[in-house]
């Protein structure tokens, strides 16, 4: 079992940076693939970034490549999402998610494949 709590909500301007954190409670955190998703009003929940077993592999949604970076600190049971050069289209509720994985695998990009979810944190980018 994994309980997830996001933090780092913010109201920022275009071009600003923001870092989200997701802290997990539970055992065996390194064995979980962790993902960040986002959902804007009236839209589906989209994959943003993922990190695999113990931080071995990362993957990103096309719209955030080269701007966002996912990382994890297994000593703190925490996964981060560094967001740079933010755009109004990045405005959404951001969710952290986790699922058991195997060594060498990428984090899934489908929300259906995740077992555990946080409550979400709001990011608003103003132009």
Explain this structure.
The protein is mostly beta strands and 127 residues long. The chain contains no helices and eleven strands. It has strands at 3-7, 10-13, 18-25, 32-39, 46-51, 58-60, 68-73, 78-83, 92-100, 116-117, 121-126. A hairpin with a 4-residue loop joins strand 7 (68-73) and strand 8 (78-83). The chain is globular.
The percent range for helix content is under 10%
- Name the overall outline: globular
Our estimate of the beta-strand percent is: over 45%
N-to-C order of helices and strands: EEEEEEEEEEE
Radius of gyration: 13 Å
Classification by helices and strands:
mainly beta
Taking the sheet with the most strands, its summary is: 7 strands, mixed
> Count of helices?
0
Mean pLDDT: 95
Low-confidence stretches: none
Overall strand count: 11
N-end to C-end Cα span: 40 Å
Structural key phrases:
0% helix; single chain; 127 residues; 50% strand; four-stranded antiparallel β-sheet; mainly beta; seven-stranded mixed β-sheet
List the helices and strands and how they pair.
Blueprint: E1 3-7, E2 10-13, E3 18-25, E4 32-39, E5 46-51, E6 58-60, E7 68-73, E8 78-83, E9 92-100, E10 116-117, E11 121-126
């Amino acid at each position: 079992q994994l309980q997830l709590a996001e933090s780092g909500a913010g109201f920022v301007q275009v071009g600003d940076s923001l870092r989200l954190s997701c802290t997990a409670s539970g055992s065996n955190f390194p064995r979980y693939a962790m993902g960040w998703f986002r959902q804007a009003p009236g839209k589906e929940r989209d994959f943003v970034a993922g990190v695999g077993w113990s931080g071995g592999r990362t993957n990103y949604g096309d719209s955030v490549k080269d701007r966002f970076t996912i990382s994890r600190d297994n000593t703190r049971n925490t996964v981060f999402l560094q967001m740079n050069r933010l755009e109004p289209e990045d405005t959404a509720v951001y969710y952290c998610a986790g699922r058991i994985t195997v060594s060498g695998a990428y984090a899934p990009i489908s929300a259906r494949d995740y077992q555990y979810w946080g409550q979400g944190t709001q990011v608003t980018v103003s132009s």
